[in-house]
From TrEMBL:
It is a multi-pass membrane protein. The chain crosses the membrane at residues 7-28, 40-60. GO terms for cellular component: plasma membrane. Keywords: Cell membrane, Membrane, Transmembrane, Transmembrane helix. Belongs to the UPF0410 family. This is GlsB/YeaQ/YmgE family stress response membrane protein. Pfam families: Transgly_assoc. It is found in: Cell membrane. InterPro entries: Transgly_assoc (IPR007341). Signal peptide: none annotated.
Amino acid sequence: MKSDMGLMMNIILGVVGAIILSFILRLTGIGGGASASFSFAYLITGFVGACLLILIARAVRR
């Protein structure tokens, strides 16, 4: 991935994006909410949230 952002910035944006998307999905009732244990749904939510926030940050920086 060609990016001017460093590795730490990508990690931070990824974690924040995962947290934000998980929160939004829980508010809308789409997110699991059953237990805090690891599941495949949490993995997918985290991945998508991280990608979206990194994409937004890159678009804003340009």
